[in-house]
Amino acid sequence: MRTIRFFLLCSLGVLLCTSILAQAPTMAKIAFVSSGINPMGRYQSDIYMTNPDGSDLVNLISRTRGINQIAWEPTGARILFCSNRLTAHDTHGVHDIYIMNADGTDAKPMFTERRYRREPTWSPDGKSIAYIASSPLVGRSLYIAPTTGQSGTPIVQVGHNGGQPDWSPDGTEIAFVVASQGRREIYILNIEAYTQRQLSLDKNPWMERPTWSPDGEQIAFTWSPEKSGIGIYVINRDGTGLEEAVPPSTSRILSITWSPSGDELIYGKVMVNTAHLFKVSLQDRRIQQFTDKLPSTEAIWFDPAAVVPVEPSASAFITTWSKIKNRD
Question: Are 79 and 73 in contact (CB under 8 A)?
C-alpha cells in the first residue's frame, strides 16, 4: 500500500512539474526568429519573445544552426520550431521539428524517429500537427501526426516546392500551397470530407503563405498579380472579397501572421542584406516597422484572452483516420 501511495505521489509530482514548466504567457506576446552573424563572426539563430509593442525583449533559445518555421500551441504553453540540429553535440544534422516550452525550456525533438520535416502547424485542439515531408514513394506531401511522438501519415502531395500548411481555427480545413510547372496555387483540404478545393484568382497563379484569420472567415496570403512584385492580400474563405493589405513590391515576403484580434498582420520582409518584421493595420492599411536592430524573418502572436477551446467532431476524426488507414 505504501508503494502504491509513493508511486501515485511521484506520478502526481511529475504531472505538476510538467504543468508548471509548460505554462502559457499570462499576457499577449509575440515570439519571433532572428538569424544573423553574432559578435564572434558565426551564424546564429535565436527565438525572442516580446510584448506586442516591442518592449520586454527576452531571448528564449539560441542555436548555431538555423531556426525557422515556428508555431505556437493553441493553449500557448509550447512552441514548435524547425532546426538542423538542437545542440552542438547533435550529429544528425536533419532539418526536423522540435518542441519547447513557451519560456524556452525543455527543447527536444517532436518525434521519436528523426527525419526531414518542415513547416509545422497545430490543430486547434492541440492534439495533432500537420507538416511537410518527403519520401521516395509519395514525394513531397502534407502529413498529419498526433503530438505523442509518432511519425505522421501522408495525406496529399504538394509538388516539389509546395507546402506551407495552415490549420483553420475550427479544425475542419487545412490551407496549403501546391507547386507545379512554375505555378504556386492555394488549395484547401476539407479534413472531414477528404476533398480539396482551389482558391482561384483570375490573374497570375503565384500565391503563397496562406494564413487563416482568427475567426476562420478569411485567409491572408502573398500574391504577385502582375508578375512585377509581391504583396499581401486577404480573401474570404469562399474565394470572394479579395482585398490588398500590403502593396506589391520587389521585396520578398517571408511570413505572415494574424494578430489574435484579427485587425493586424505582422509579416517578415527581406530588405538590403537583412530582413525585418512589419505590422500592417487592416483598418487603415498603415504600415509600421516592428524590428529594426535584430534581423527577423517570422513571428507568431499569442494572446491568452483570445484562447477558445476547440474539440474536433467525432465524425471528422473517424472519417479522416479511417480513410488514412485504408490507404496504408
Answer: yes
Alpha helices, DSSP H only, in 64-149? none
Q: Residue 177's closest CA among 145, 142, 208, 204?
A: 208
Residues 6+ apart with CB under 8 A from 69: 80, 81, 82, 118, 119, 120, 298
Query: What sections of 24-145 are H helices per DSSP?
Result: none
State the Cα angle at 155 between 152 and 160, rounded to 5°. 100
For 177, the enclosing helix (H) or strand (E) is strand 173-180
pLDDT in tens, 279-312: 999 999 999 999 998 899 999 999 999 887 655 4
Looking at the domain that runs over 24-327, which CATH code has it been given?
2.120.10.30
Residue-wise pLDDT tens digits, 253-277: 999 999 999 999 999 999 988 999 9
Is pLDDT larger for residue 93 or for residue 224? Answer: 224
The one-character DSSP state at 88 is T
Residue type, 263: D
Q: Which amino acid is at 211?
A: T
| Predicted local confidence at residue 36, as pLDDT | 78
What letters, b where the CB count within 10 A reaches 16 and e where it falls short, cover 154-175? bbbebbeebbbbbbbbebbbbb
Spans of all domains in the chain: 24-327
Q: Which helix (H) or strand (E) holds 321?
A: helix 314-327
Rounded Cα gap, residues 23 and 4, in angstroms: 29
Give SS3 for 165. Answer: strand
CA 224: distance to chain centroid? 22
Over range 196-222, report the average pLDDT. Answer: 93
pLDDT tens readout for residues 55-84: 999 999 987 678 999 999 999 999 999 998
Q: Which residues pair with 71 in a beta bridge?
A: 80
Beta bridge partners of 29: 302
